[in-house]
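Could you help me review a protein record that somebody else here produced? Do not assume that whoever made the record got everything right. The record follows directly below this note.
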Amino acid sequence: MNMHKNARLTPLGRERMVLAMRSGQTPEAAAQAAGVCPRTARKWLKRFEAEGSAGLIDRSSRPCKLRRPTSAAVREEIVALRRKRLCGKPIAKRGGVSPATVSRVLGAAQLSRMNDLDPVEPVRRYERETPGQSEDHREVEVAQVGCRSPDRTERAAINRPDR
């Protein structure tokens, strides 16, 4: 995980604090030296004793599993309503769930954008016998409009039709 610039303790600082406590310093003194509360110091000491240096690394605050995961019936209803081209908030109201749940379910179903509902148009490729050949071959004449002549009269004539 990334450390922010104002973090009180980095994994190295935690290790220094834990080693100070293991060498006989009280948790209160070690915590005061590190700029944290004694409870935090004891927490890191307990993790170090249980897991070693690996316990001093930051952990994700995301729960390992949800208490009440969204049921399959609700997920199917959300996807069905999306296929009817409803937006997130109306789906949440009809389904009786939060907009965050709707967003998460639609993201998992790869339907988070309305464009995801439309089938992808296949790339149209044509093979010809020679490069540049088309079915109805027409000559197109290209004329440069608005080019200046050396005496600058031609452009004035093009821009002002009355002259």
Summary: The chain has a mean pLDDT of 82. Residues 93 and 99 are 8 Å apart (CA to CA). Residues 72-114 form one domain.
